[in-house]
Amino acid sequence: MTVVTTLPDRRLLLVHAHPDDESIGTGSTMAHYAAAGAHVTLVTCTLGEEGEIHVPELAGLAAAEADQLGGYRIAELAAACAELGVTDHRFLGGAGRYRDSGMMGLPTNGHPRAFWRADLDEAAGYLLEVIQEVRPQVVITYDDNGFYGHPDHIQAHRVAMRAVELAAREGLAPAKVYWTAMPQSVLEAGMTHFEEASDNPFAGISDATELPFCTPDKEIAARIDATDQHVAKEAAMRAHATQIPATSWLYSIAGNFGAEFMGVEYFTLAVGTKGPGGGPYGWESDLFAGLDVAAGPDRAPVSSAGHR
After folding, report:
1. Which three-class secondary structure state does DSSP give residue 12?
2. Residue list, annotated binding site for Zn(2+)
3. Which of this chain's residues are annotated to bind Zn(2+) (predicted)?
4. Which residue stretches of the chain are H helix?
5. 0.85 exceeded by the pTM?
6. CATH code of 178's domain
7. How many structural domains comprise the chain?
8. Does residue 304 belong to any structural domain of this protein?
């Protein structure tokens, strides 16, 4: 029997490329809104089959070996979502519909199921089905360079933006679409802090603007302070053990900056009207700022059997 429930007034949809992207890039934001009672839906576009493996005893799962890493990462993602308090997670078109394309320029880009090769309207159609069901007011994905140029991140951006366009034709367009971003001032502070560190993630870079994800502070629209959720974000990252080793510089930064690094995330606004904010650039502190969510599209029923 299908159990039908009514979704909360505030609904947030995130579109990510691989398992672990959600935790690294938006984990605190997801945990923040889930804890506040918003409905958080995560759509992951691939299983991450081409990822590196940092657990030696699992090396046989690699794409060049048993090619079972994708299946293993489904469990890692489920554990990460549990740490973040996110109960609604789907794979785009179902688990395994699209394959991890690997880094740009590799032969894996040409795999018949590579997400990079996906038909845009077909993939966007799968995401449109989620939008029709959940009716999110806010969508989060990457910018047109996929934050750092990975083909699957770029494709996730294209698919998300196309699905939003298709939803608009049906009168179901989200009020806002945000792209993940990193302010120039934050990067510069990090570069200064790590200048003498042995695990300097900025080694060889002297100018923050050389980094593909560097965003001028004035272009940032929202700063989500979810420092109260930094422990959940770190736990979610540790759930992705095959991808993020315990010695990762990410944890080194967390050890130095703690809640500030793990708990604060930034976004640019690609679609919609910026709500009230603060500071020199009027950064929003809430992704739903300026929205009358009660006056939005009718809340949609969702079946428990529909989560996949």
Report:
1. strand
2. 18, 21, 153
3. 18, 21, 153
4. 21-35, 69-84, 120-134, 151-169, 184-193, 230-239, 249-257, 259-263
5. yes
6. 3.40.50.10320
7. 1
8. no
